Amino acid sequence: MKPGTTRGTTRRTVLAGAAALGAAATLPLTLTAGTAHAADPVDDAASLRTRWHTLLTGGPGLDLADARIAAAVARIGKAATTSAKGLDPSRTDGLFPDLTSTTLSNHVTTSFKRLATLATAWAVPGTVQYGDTALRDLLLAGIDWMLTNRYGPGHTRFDNDWDWEIGSALALNDAAVLLYDVLGTERLGRISAAVRGYTPDPNLWRADRQIATGANRVWISTVVAVNAVLRDSGDDLVRVRDALSDVEGSGANSVLAFNDASAASEGTGEGFYSDGSFLQHYKHPYNGGYGKELLNNLSRLLNLLAGTAWTVTDPDLDNVRRWVDEGFDPLLARGDVMASVCGREIARPSKQGHASAQTVIEAVVRLIPSFPGETADRFTALVKQWIAEDTYRDFLAVTDLASLVAARNVIASPVPARGPLVAHKQHPRIDKAAHHRPSFALGISAYSSRIYNYESIQNENLHAWHLSDGMVLLYTDDLGHYSEDYWPTVDPARLPGTTVLAGRPADAAGQRTTSTADWAGGAALPGTTLGAYGMELRAFGSSLHGLKSWFCLDDVIACVGSGISADAGTAETVVENRKLRDPAAALLVDGQAAPPDTGWSARLDQVRWVHVAGTGGYVFPEPVTLHGLREDRTATWREINLKYGTDTPVTRPYLTLWQDHGTAPDGAGYFWLQAPMASPERTKQWSSAPPVKLVARSTAVHAVRRCADGLLAANFWGAGTAQELTSDGPASVLVRPEGRTVTVSLSDPTQLRSSVVLDLARRNLSVVSAGPGITVAPTGSGIRITADTTGLHGATLDLTLKRS
Predict the structure, then answer these.
(1) What pLDDT, on a 0 to 100 scale, did the predictor assign at position 251?
(2) In which band, very low, low, confident or very high, does the pLDDT at 26 lie, cut at 50, 70 and 90?
(3) In the Cβ-directed half-sphere of 68, how many Cα atoms lie within 13 Å?
(4) What is d(CA 270, CA 263) in angstroms, rounded to the nearest whole number?
(5) pLDDT for 158 beyond 60
(6) Is 180 one of the catalytic residues?
């Protein structure tokens, strides 16, 4: 197997010096955490097949007496037993009785996945299926049936291109690697021809004449790479290597390069951005969906090609470090990936229970050898923390064999776990924010003229109407809260944090839209858990309009709304909607216990504070009228997912609290303090002496001040003033005095302004340090700060001042 040639000289062919990065990678089974051993160079197909076989089976020499290994082997055998049910190559309508459709393409992919699952059990020592000749013959007959009746030359594709080009091809390739020695030349040729017929090249142009990008590009590259190994084609491996990079020099189709510069000119928008955001399907936030799959498959490809003539040497490979640090770590909450970046996957029953985080962990474990030194140690510390802190789902009890062995080596490393994440992170490119404190994490989901509100295609995610209407998801020590059937059973018209018109829209199949509003984003003080975030809500499908802010000030989130208006309908802002661990969890309203009975509902007048056991407190410095409801909600997964959902009813208990703004409101608003995981005593104390005070709530500006240190946080919707701070237009600003130092952080959340001008009425201030493009000039009452925000796409700029 010899390397081939490409279209002239590429960036990689002149970067021989960068080869050491990829050459340092090694197989998962030989990984020693914190170090990397150079792999012996290989260029023969048999060695590469062995690498892929090891990824699928864990490789030779597994210690079956080890309890963890034995349990993983038993899981493989059990999965195969389930997959074998109904398998009958003598059937004429389908290889499996429940997968007979010739209009639903996922029936083809699922058939191949079941064959691959069976082939894995056949290839792994210790399973009841290992080396079984009857199963071998059944598998070969099953592959023949699929090639004859469903997949390959002469068969017209139907439904979803993904199943033909990616899903089915990946599974068939895996089965072929596992069964390689018994396939025979003729059958292997049919398999290769079938896969190449749908996926001939990593630079695959789709039916809509758009080249595959983002996760689809890496999936397709994986298909081509494994098929190339099966066919002994070095030329195709060259194309795979180059497909991951910018072979034409435009940046348009590079998977590894950040998409910041190319998206505007090319109009695709898909891929990773330098702030950690990931977009797929043009404008959908998808770190926890397609993004994790890109990371996962890229790690497998790097593993396959490491130390070979096709090693990826593109210097942009180094960007993967930031993918992990900026694009995944802040969006994980103790084993759960924040639902706001998971797209339509939240509507799939197989993706609950922290399953998405498992994929991220496996990928990072696989990447550690590719980034020796400090990055390997940092990734090791991350993996140890992620595995240890998820007490809901034991990673070592669910992962595959190869990842199990590698992860245990990581855990045994002397590198200590990172510790809980304490940070405030904003992703301006996808209109999302994440706030991490030691006892909780909180995710805020917005959308704008730049970002779609939700994805509902392929008859999935049918009740996703309000996922970006200011949804606030709180992650506490109830690690299974957003698992165990949350998404089919939660009231989708009252998601926590959202402002909505009461009522249930029609199913959302096929719908996606951007907002007509540009304002979504915020500013964050570096090195702290202090951030201002907000959005101008212009609801899809109605006249509802409002301005919403969240000032995340360590353990308190100040929630502010104004200008809530609609031509018709009843507007509501949802304070909380919680799936209860204990159906009778105590609800205290101004210190009085509300009835714990299911079915309780009440109008609660002049409320000053509320506490929900196991969740935290809510303080209303301006007493409000709330509506409360306890209910058991029954639904099926099929109600939100016609493709993968089941018809089995599930029931879960919920407690919902909301503020009613009335019918056709005109300029309504709200203000409360959310104190996640606070005790009833602390909540009551803060109701008497709120730690944060409202400074401004208008259609020009929202602003609050923290009493302990005088920090001022403001979202300017237009030109306006909040006490000592004035802005010439839209901006998000934090001003923090600390001793003789004043720190200012600011941004343009509209991402349209060339500059932001602030007047700060504080005298005797001089500049200590300033971010790029910031200038300061004295005024009669203080200083004027002018910040060049051109091309920053909502990123925060910082300025440090000192009082003389």
Answers:
(1) 44
(2) very low
(3) 16
(4) 7
(5) yes
(6) no
Q: What is the pLDDT of residues 29-73, one digit of tens each?
A: 232 222 223 344 457 899 999 999 999 999 999 999 999 999 999
Q: Which residues contact 333 (CB under 8 A, 6 or more apart)?
A: 436, 441, 443, 475
Cβ proximity of 698 and 562 under 8 Å = yes
pTM over cut 0.70: yes
pLDDT in tens, 729-761: 999 999 999 999 999 999 999 999 999 999 999
Encoded tokens for 741: 């130092």
Inter-residue contact 642 to 459 (CB < 8 Å): yes
Whether 713 and 551 have beta carbons less than 8 Å apart is answered as yes
Q: Which parts of 447-502 fold into alpha helices (H)?
A: 486-489
Distance from the Cα of residue 766 to its chain's centroid? 42
Checking if the pLDDT of 19 tops 90, the result is no
What is the chain's mean pLDDT, rounded? 92
Angular region, 241: left φ>0, alpha ψ -120 to 50, beta rest: alpha
Structure tokens given for 703: 């602003």
40: exposed, middle or buried (Cβ count in 10 Å: 0-12, 13-18, 19+): exposed
∠ CA(570), CA(574), CA(575), 5° rounding?
A: 140
* Coil, helix or strand at residue 389: helix
CB 165 within 8 A of CB 204: yes
SS3 label, residue 538: strand
Helix/strand/coil for 71: helix
For the stretch 253-281, pLDDT in tens is 689 999 886 544 344 588 999 999 999 99
Which candidate in 151, 273, 286, 290 is catalytic?
290
CA distance 128 to 78: 9
Asked whether the beta carbons of 613 and 589 are under 8 A apart, the reply is no
DSSP string, 169-216: HHHHHHHHHHTHHHH-HHHHHHHHHHHHHH---SSPBPTTS-B--HHH
Planar angle of CA 777, 781, 786, nearest 5 degrees: 30
At position 740, the amino acid (one-letter code) is R
Quote the crossing angle between the two packed helices 168-178 and 106-123, to the nearest 10°. 20
- H or E element, residue 282: none
The answer for residues whose C-beta is within 8 angstroms of residue 186's C-beta and 6 or more apart is none
Other C-beta atoms within 10 Å of 30: how many?
A: 15
Cα–Cα distance list, 796 to 49, 556, 748 (Å) = 47, 21, 8
The edge-to-edge listing of strands for the beta sheet with 432-437 is 423-427, 432-437, 440-445, 471-475
Distinct helix (H) and strand (E) counts, the chain: 19, 33
